[in-house]
Amino acid sequence: MTMHQIDVPIGSLVLSPQNARKNLESGQEDAEIHDLANSIAEQGLLQPLVVRKIAGEKYEVVAGQRRLTACKELQMSTVPCNALSNCTDESALSISLIENIQRADMHPLDKADGLQALYETHGSYARVAKETGLSPQTIKKYVSLNQLPLELKEHISSAETNIPVGPLFELSKTYSGDDAIQVYSKVEGFNANWQKEIIKRSGGDTDLIDGLIAEAHEGAFDLKRCDQRYGCQVIREIIAGEISDVEFEEMVAEAAAAQQTQLPTPNGQNPVHEFWKTLSRPIVE
Questions:
Q1: Against a cut of 0.70, is the pTM above it?
Q2: How far is CA 141 from CA 170, 171, 187, 239, in A?
């Protein structure tokens, strides 16, 4: 597979069905596309699209769906592209997924679909791990989301906020069908860590959910200190491979936003401990 750079008329560019990033409909994505369009208008397209030629004069966008959408917003006539020759469907999916896999805001259901397709192509989690740089355990976690009911996945896809994979994974391995829909509707308003904890402690018994929710409101799920340091449970889960790099990045961003602590703290508290406390003991909203 070789690559050469060309300028392609924007009308000749079509989205690839292999593209792993399909959720570009939410208001948040609209805002991000607008910001990207402003950046391209000021600095130009710094990273060309990756395409492959299909029937006639059409080119399929393998990687760069957001960039293409921004270019269309700017009404550009041509777009700089890196054109691939002899690019198979398998290679196109790999390129698309790998480009997006490190994006913390990539929708988990998009990632689940892409990883599922890669697994079906390769037939091995180890080979998918080699392609994407993710651990086999993390790949299995995402693929399991495809077991969620279609109605629930449609609801999750329409959400305007980022959806962490942890609670969805816990839900997919604990409940199915209408039970999964019912449980998620009850825990949806909680912090992601609380969602995961409620589902885990229920053990698959829907009758326990309401009681666990009441306990969560009362603070019964507070994680304890470990050797006088906060965050030990988070660290253990990272070491065990139960939390991926992307999940940890999301958790840190959420905790930082909740804490909003700057040095020095007015009350004399250690900001590092306070940050880990927020990360390990999320506030129930």
A1: no
A2: 9, 11, 20, 16
- The full DSSP string for 177-217 is HHHHHHHHHHHTTS-HHHHHHHHHHHTT-GGGHHHHHHHHH
- Domains with residue ranges and CATH for the chain: 2-143 (3.90.1530.10), 223-285 (no CATH)
Q: Alpha-carbon distance 186 to 210, whole Å? A: 8
Q: Identify any residues that bridge with 15 across adjacent strands, giving them in sequence order.
A: 61
What confidence tens digit (pLDDT) does each residue in 26-75 have?
Answer: 444 566 788 999 999 999 999 999 999 988 889 999 988 889 999 999 99
DSSP percent split of the chain into helix, strand, coil, nearest 5: 55, 10, 30
What residue type is 133 in one-letter code? G
pLDDT bracket for residue 145 (50, 70, 90) = very high
